[in-house]
Write a structure and sequence with these properties.
This protein is an alpha/beta fold. It folds into two domains: about 5-120, P-loop containing nucleotide triphosphate hydrolases (Rossmann fold), CATH 3.40.50.300; about 130-370, no CATH class. The protein is about 45% helix and about 20% strand. The chain has helices spanning about 5-15, 30-35, 50-60, 80-90, 105, 130-135, 140-150, 155-160, 160-185, 190-200, 210-215, 220-230, 245-250, 270-290, 335-340, 370, and strands spanning about 15-20, 40-45, 65-70, 95-100, 120, 235-240, 255-260, 295-300, 305-315, 315-325, 345-350, 360, 365. α7 packs across α14 (about 270-290) and α11 packs across α12. The longest helix has 24 residues, at about 270-290.
């Protein structure tokens, strides 16, 4: 399976270092090893491996290596200074690829500057677009499978709900035990587990920190800190309501989605919205990372309760509005209202079980699978 960032990585490696980040087990190491095949003398080092760690610290890799891959290097003390030295002192045409869990995203924000020395690419779960382009399945079936198995490679490729459930149980147990401990304290683990379970049933709804705090019997500020940890680890992502004044948007309640749709508790409609959210996030982040676009994903909501699931903005102006439905082909009143308010924006009612695409009153009623497969990534 050749992932969607493959060609872009090869292109970027000719110019600068490349950082690949994303959730654990989303396929970063596999992708890096596929890229290795394009080089004559590549070397791969994982900082978690004792022998590799020794070579990294001593910088004793082969002099003729044309590609150096450093996996989990952010666990090394002063890793930024180390990479800066390796990059500045590298041999001509020696490429450097850095991969790591989502923690690399967090730690990348502090410490020794690497400005101007790298490109950052975010690897996201498998999407409808990827599956269709690879010829794995047609778009409708792709949505069905992603809704059930999620987009992480191992559970998806197992094609078994039982195997996917076994993977998921182990995945989140390890994640909480290993990664969350780096942000929190041992006595907080049970609360974090409880919060994660509660969030599984709150997909696509405005997130009330106070309500969650009451359920867990902790303070709202502690809940906010826990949610931020889960977000930093790419377990969940938040969407803010659109507002031209960013500060007002940040103060309003966000909606929450999981990177792994398979973890979502809810009916088929809720799972479909989560799948669409992951695909749209991937689309937006790809355009940011590869095209340098000032693009964002959010949602629309008014004080009287009218809401549209997703909006895509370019330079803080709405370009697309998207309402996701499982089967209902009746025009969304909220989408009609916002379509009148933002006439320059394209309006889509994306429906999974739709017989015929059509255009009504400025709204495009489209098949969910076909529309999601038309995104950039």
């Amino acid at each position: 399976m050749k992932r969607y960032l493959y060609n872009q990585i090869l292109k970027d490696l000719k110019k600068k270092m490349v950082f690949i980040t994303g959730p654990r087990q989303v396929g970063k190491t596999y992708l890096a090893k596929e890229v290795m095949k394009e080089f004559k003398n590549p070397q791969y080092f994982n900082y978690d491996n004792r022998d590799d760690r020794k070579i990294i610290r001593q910088m004793s890799w082969k002099l003729n290596a044309d590609l150096l891959i450093f996996d989990e290097i952010h666990k090394m003390k002063d890793w930024k200074m180390f990479l800066k030295g390796v990059y500045d002192g590298r041999y001509e045409n020696q490429a450097i690829l850095v991969t790591g869990s989502s923690r690399l995203d967090t730690f990348r924000q502090t410490g020794e500057s690497l400005a101007g020395r790298y490109f950052h690419l975010r690897l996201n779960p498998i999407s409808v677009k990827e599956l269709v382009e690879m010829g794995f399945c047609e778009s409708y079936e792709a949505v069905e499978r992603l809704n059930t198995l999620g987009g992480f490679p191992e559970p998806f490729l197992s094609e078994s709900e039982d195997e996917a459930a076994r993977w998921r149980n182990q995945y989140y147990t390890d994640l909480i035990r290993e990664d969350i401990l780096e942000f929190g304290r041992l006595n907080e683990i049970n609360n974090m587990k409880l919060l994660l379970e509660l969030l599984r049933g709150r997909i696509a709804s405005p997130l009330s920190y106070s309500a969650l705090a009451g359920d867990i019997q902790i303070s709202p500020n502690t809940v906010k800190r826990y949610v931020k940890i889960l977000e930093s680890l790419h377990i969940i992502f938040l969407l803010r309501p659109y507002h031209k004044r960013l500060a007002r948007s940040i103060l309003r309640e966000p909606k929450l989605y999981f990177y792994d749709t398979g973890l979502v508790e809810g009916d088929d409609g809720v799972r479909l919205e989560n799948t669409a959210a992951v695909c749209l996030l991937k689309h937006v982040e790809y355009l940011k990372d590869v095209g340098g676009k000032n693009i964002s994903l959010s949602y629309l909501k008014t004080k009287d309760g009218k809401e549209v699931d997703f909006v895509i903005t370019m330079d803080n102006e709405i370009t697309q509005m998207v309402e996701v439905k499982l089967s209902d082909s009746k025009l969304s009143r909220s989408l009609l209202t916002f379509s009148d308010r933002f006439p320059e924006a394209e309006a889509f009612q994306v429906i999974h079980n739709l017989r015929h695409s059509q255009h009504m009153k400025g709204i495009n009623l489209v098949h969910a699978g076909e529309w999601l497969s038309s995104l950039e990534a």
